[in-house]
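check this:
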Amino acid sequence: MRETTRKKERLKLKNIILENIYYNLKAYCIVTIIFLIGIIAGVIFINHINEGQMGEIKEYIQQFITAIKGDYEINKGELLKKSLIENFKLALGMWFIGLSVIGIPIVLGIILFRGFCIGYTVSSAIAILGLQKGSLFFVTTILAQNIVFIPVIITLAVSGMKLYKSIMKDKRKENIKLEIVRHTIVSIILFALLVVSSLIEVYISTNLLTACIGFF
């Protein structure tokens, strides 16, 4: 009986997600494209920096790897706290900005910047460590948490765009209040997923990095 109930709940959740994507497909496409542009910009940036800047990045990555290989112990409690605070600020900021009519460009700017950071990080690792080691560095440090993180921030941006679209189409206060409540509920649920992303970062990615550090 419980198993049947769980299956129904999972199916219901799946249908809600699919319906959300279907009715907001254009917004998802726009946000995803902006995110990909950010990644490409990050890759291009690394390919055009001077030797001095590349030397600084190389020194940072090598010092990081050396520290992990040595006696350095990762303070997972402190790392989790820092990650949760950063994700809370991000979710709160995107929720608040999404309430503003002029906030959508800022939300899209955040998406662009996050894409840039990923592109920058991956291309830096590959440029310094080579394709194989650089790819392994990416997989063990930022891939796992970003499997959750990236869809969450894209959905947060889409929720803000949906709210903006609703405000522009319908000026009635009752409907605007309803959309704000929906946007708030979505943001709370997505923050809960960001907590999962933080847990993955601290307890999975760090263990993967420690286990594979000998290959760098």
